[in-house]
Amino acid sequence: MNPYQIIKGPLITEKSTIQKELSNQLTFEVDRRANRVEIRHAVEKIFNVKVTQVRTMQIKGKVKRVGRTLGKRRDWKKAVVTLAKGENIEFFEGV
User: Fold this and answer.
1) Residue 15 covered by a domain
2) Can you give the residue range of the structural domain that contains 33?
């Protein structure tokens, strides 16, 4: 699988910003079929950094109601990537 297909995009929230500052961890939305090894290689190749740890979570979509109809948001996968000491990604620096 192409690294750009594995990493769908960064998740920029208040919690992920705090994680980045305190423990050099970045959060990404990733392909649901990707495993930790593939995510590690994709981040290292795209951003040219050294990854020490990858943690993944399956996020279940919430059930939402619009009028009488019930709908469901999509399920997705989140990866929290820990970078090695001294490594950073400039894309996240201004956030």
Assistant:
1) yes
2) 3-86
